[in-house]
Amino acid sequence: MSSALYALGRWAARAKWLVLAVWLLLLAVLATGALTLGKGANAPITIPGTEAQDAITSLSHTFPEVSGTSATIIVVAPEGDDLESDRYRDAVLDVADELDPLPGVSGVLTPFGTGEAAAANTEISPDGRALLMRVQVEGEMTSVDDVTIDGIAAATDALRDRLPAGAEVSYGGEMFSAAVPGLSPTEAIGVVVAFVVLILTLGSLIAAGMPLLIAMIGVGVSIAGLFFVTAFVDLTSTTPMLALMLGLAVGIDYTLFIVSRHQEQLRAGLSVRESIARATATSGSAVVFAGLTVIIALIGLAVARIPFLTALGVAAAAAVAVAVLIAITLTPAVLSMAGMRILPRKHRPTAVVGDDGEGSSAEPIVPEQTRADRFFAGWVRGATKRPVITILAVLIALGVGSIPALQLRLALPDATSLAVDDPARVTHELTGEHFGEGFNAPLLLTGSIISSTDPLGLMDDLKREVERVPGVAEVPLATPNQGADTGIIQIIPEEGAHAASTTELVKELRSHHDEWEDKYGVSLAVTGFTAVGIDVSAQLMTALLPFGIFVVGLSLVLLAMVFRSVWVPIKATLGYLLSVGVAFGAVVAVFQWGWLSEVLNVSSTGPVLSFMPIILMGVLFGLAMDYEVFLVARMREEYVHGGDAQRAIQRGFVGSAKVVTAAALIMIAVFAAFVPAGDPSIKVIALGLAVGVFVDAFIVRMTLVPAVLALLGERAWKMPRWLAKVLPSFDVEGEGLAREIEHAEWPADMPNARVASEKLTLRGAGSNVQARDVRLADGEALVLDPRDAAGLPLAQALSGRGRIVAGTLKVDGLLLPERASSLRARSAWAGLDTLRQALRDAPTLLVLDLRSAELAPLSPAAVSDARSALAAWHVDRGRDSAPPILVVLGGREAAERLLPDGHTAVSLSPEHAERLDPAGHLDRIELEGAR
């Protein structure tokens, strides 16, 4: 990974204007597509397959009058007025006539209508002061025509003008229960705070502006792409806002990590281009890993098997992926444009021209220890001085902070989450005040009655059954449809949609399904907007456990790959769970208990957004792994470069704490900016993330982690050998890259060798084998005897397929095992029968396996065909390409017969191979990258 990113960083620095042009062109293309083809992110929150959702879908075909969505207009008369007077009656009926022709309106129900226009569920309140008008609209609430929405608002104003002074009229209902999220000036405060933090961290306006600029371009690409995708896929209104929030936060942070490392290396004396390449390789590797953890966790939301949540997770993951890609491509390009100006003026040395044509320091700059360095040095000393006390204090504090999470309740947002003066919120509260909260949460019981010979009598019988169910306040409607094949029963609960009693009522009604089916022959389903919300919340709560197992298991595996340790992943995962617990606790305290509700502009308290926990867990997991990687990777880097465990903790902490602190503060600022004036669906997620990032970065990663590592000592960096062999290595610290740079001019005795090895030990068949040193020049073919214990393992290693235990091997300029994957892509392995097929892709290296040819002499025809194929292989590569490398696994005599003219056979004799015991000393000094 680090080697590939090193090459990418060098290329992007050279092709800086091309890289910038490609990203700007992509932004322009996606923005054009979004503006011309995008349909907007307004899909409803549904879960196909649940009882409530399936019943609503069925009603849209059998009973369209009660399917779709609805709006409510409430009229509250002044004290002493008679609602049934002609003035009120005429005004209401006139407005009903004006509403009826609006697009999509299938019916307007009032207490004063006749026949189908009159319904018991649109009655006058028990106190005689309020009446309701129901406007039934076809389709889902997010697809209602703007003309209809504006028409309902205008009709409400007209009704208010026609009624006596003091009469209160407001519109709302299901159709207006959710607002479309939008940006507000408050979100810009987060960007301003981020800019201030960047200036303090990087010390330069150019350096501070770069992460913001690059993150903005990335966010623009992401959001434009999402709205373009809405031409083909339905997305909820929360999706682009979450993608914006995440893309902005991680985009700034990821670029910050690379820019900070670049500045550090420039001060150490590296040239601009070399520093860009190395920063992209080292910090870029950590960025890729951190981004992958966020992406995998977000895509893991599919574990819940809820379509809208899966789409939301994939969209947010796409925004993070764009942030990663733009960080490792556009950042090197822009850094190349900035040159030495990326450093504060006082740190810019007198520039000299390096070999790459870029400016570099005449000599390394060693800045004085800053006040921040001294502060963080004291922090880590305090955390590790008495690690047991630190660990216990953190566990107790975070445990107490997690206690409110035990009372977490979930629900979909309704009108109570809107602003206090929003008409839908006013209507909701007036309805609850005059009719009871249950009128804001009606349920529908529906089923097929096609087999009934007395539909009206059947519906009356079912109505009486339902009225006896505990929790039912009223059953205002029980009727068949016009075709008498479907019946509906409207049920008014005693309390509102978010009340626990309403959830219990839904369960109780469903528990009578079998009883009523046996008694009346009707299979009844509970549905309605309230029931859908209850089903969504229940399924999301059920999905928390499998998703939590997925995330925890993922973190253990990924961190074990990165840190080659058992204890580091365990403590990182436990720390993540503590952060999640405190984040949930803060959400409950603010949004359910009402703590700081006025300060944070929380308009009402109650159950929190249903999909908040699973999204918060996924996103916070990725962000927590960011800080774990950037902080602990620096500690491990100090350790593997020869430092003792305790000193590595302190040096690594001081070296990375400043950047981690800045990154965390930026994230907190961005998330917190969405809380005061944010959409209700976004602000609860934003608050949880802001608290979670604060706790995870400053308490868990920067306090608990050093204490745990200090307590573990050397054991923190150990891993069982069997596990090290199973898990692939993810070189985040750039150890492999450092080794490649060190061997750039190796071997000194033959720098242009096509193949070179030294003190090479390979994994053979059940044992380790030491191979003879190799130097192979252009025009030479290496012949390996299959009887030699090192023959086959060396052939496998030369093609990038074998395992190197110790020593140094370089093939075609690629150092192994670091570049084994690149070598595999360039190499081929073939016998005589598959030779021509293997050469079609013009590999750089070919292993010609002649072991089967040893059993029978080669025919003249086979030899001639092989020679011509190999000769053509050399010619086809062209004059500008390096000559290909030929490795023959077979006897020297057969190899010499097959070699094209002008080639020399270089043979390794069996007597030079030394067999080593599997438990020998070489096994104990295995290369880290070879695992």
From TrEMBL:
GO cellular component: a single term: plasma membrane
Keywords, sorted A to Z: Cell membrane, Membrane, Transmembrane, Transmembrane helix
Protein location: Cell membrane
Domain of life: Bacteria
Transmembrane parts of this sequence: 188-206, 213-233, 239-259, 280-303, 309-338, 388-408, 543-563, 575-596, 608-632, 653-678, 684-712
Main location: membrane
Topology with respect to the bilayer: Multi-pass membrane protein
Cell membrane found in the keyword field: yes
GO MF entries: transmembrane transporter activity
Domain SSD residue range list: 190-337
PANTHER family according to UniProt: MEMBRANE PROTEIN MJ1562-RELATED (PTHR33406), MEMBRANE PROTEIN YDFJ (PTHR33406:SF13)
Name the UniProt record assigns to this protein: RND superfamily putative drug exporter
